[in-house]
Amino acid sequence: MLDAVIIGGGAAALSAALYLSRGGKKVEVFERNQIGGDLGQIPELENYPGYQGSGEGLAKVMREQAEQAGAKISYGECHRVEDCAELRKEDPERTDLPERGFYVSIDDEVVYAKSVLVACGAESRRLDVELNVPVSYCALCDGELAKDKKVAVVGGANSAVQEALYLAPMVKELTVITHSRLKAGPVLQERLRQHDNVKVLENLEATAELLNKFEHVFVFIGKEPKAGFLQELQRRHVVKKDAKFFGLEIIKEVELIDEDGYIITGAKGKSEHETAQTGLYAAGDIRQGAVCQVITAAGDGAAAAIEMLEFLNGAESVS
Ligand SMILES: Cc1cc2nc3c(=O)[nH]c(=O)nc-3n(C[C@H](O)[C@H](O)[C@H](O)COP(=O)(O)OP(=O)(O)OC[C@H]3O[C@@H](n4cnc5c(N)ncnc54)[C@H](O)[C@@H]3O)c2cc1C
């Protein structure tokens, strides 16, 4: 049995793998696509203190460091994570399963681990139109490219307005385009109105014809977290929660995943990166409330790993 399985091979995962391995734990990272995750899409990383170069270059160093510390880094896609004790309860014949820990299905094999870190990231929802102008999905990352330009921001929720507020002082003109009305909170809307160079177009489709009139387009129409492999575990938690209504279950459980697909951590009685399922942690862009930068993902991975070390060391001293 592994001490920790890490799902995903981005900045959060590689940093957690380094910390866990240095803490003497047996760790394996499973990445379904490209080691480094989103880092592979950053040609020039300009806001990671102490590093200058491509995201790919940073991913390579992070991987080497984690491997030198003893982490195993493998390719494989996670399809399901289960609590072994729950599976045995459901089917007492399954004596092949360990009494405790996690069952993690990776492609067509199964690995067992005392703890799991979900660090599988979240992808920005893409705009389905072909444009002749540059398109970005992160103002903090690409704001510099839009300096003194005529810019459009597509989206009308809090995240879109927050990104627009970051861009407004540096661009020439900024137009927020939303297909419904502006849904951001009143405080954010008021802050937006205070910028003389900002215009809001509501109830308007972001067509190619319209967007090609700008010099740079920023799109913030939501993210797509990728933790579908937690569905079964999530279902069990929700069942427990419902059962509580009928007085059948005293244990207070909360959901693992929010309605947008992000992983909820830090519920009452849990550490900051731990989910409602003991031993299951999350870090990086997949975690509810994530800032979605490389530096924060790496820091999040390290912090989660430190909590996992405490959990693993505590579990060892009990058994
Ligand atoms: C185009 C672009 C430019 C950016 N520019 C910057 C920038 O300049 N500065 C900055 O700070 N940030 C930037 N960011 C944001 C930053 O890259 C991310 O916030 C950060 O890298 C996220 O790290 P993560 O480890 O949480 O997730 P990710 O990097 O998304 O890694 C998650 C990994 O998990 C894997 N995975 C998903 N599901 C599974 C599964 N079921 N099984 C196995 N593996 C799985 C994915 O393949 C992926 O490799 C940019 C992002 C993008 C997309």
Please explain how this structure is put together.
There is one protein chain. This protein is an alpha/beta fold and 319 residues long. The protein has two domains: 2-123 and 224-318, FAD/NAD(P)-binding domain (3-Layer(bba) Sandwich), CATH 3.50.50; 126-221, FAD/NAD(P)-binding domain (3-Layer(bba) Sandwich). The protein has nine helices and 14 strands. Strands 1, 2, 3, 4, 5, 6 and 14 form a seven-stranded mixed beta sheet that branches. β1 (2-7), α1 (11-22) and β2 (27-31) form a beta-alpha-beta unit. It binds flavin-adenine dinucleotide.
What is the overall silhouette?
globular
* Assembly level: single chain
Alpha carbon gap, first and last residue: 15 Å
The figure for the number of domains is 2
Gross CATH architecture of the largest domain: 3-Layer(bba) Sandwich
Give start-end ranges of low-pLDDT stretches: none
Structural class: alpha/beta
CATH class of the largest domain: Alpha Beta
Order of helices and strands: EHEHEEHEEEEHEHEHEHEEHEH
Helix proportion range:
25-40%
Give me some keywords for this one.
binds flavin-adenine dinucleotide; FAD/NAD(P)-binding domain; 5-stranded parallel sheet; alpha/beta; 319 residues; 7-stranded mixed sheet
How would you concisely characterize the structure shown here?
With about 325 residues, this protein is an alpha/beta fold. It has nine helices and 14 strands.
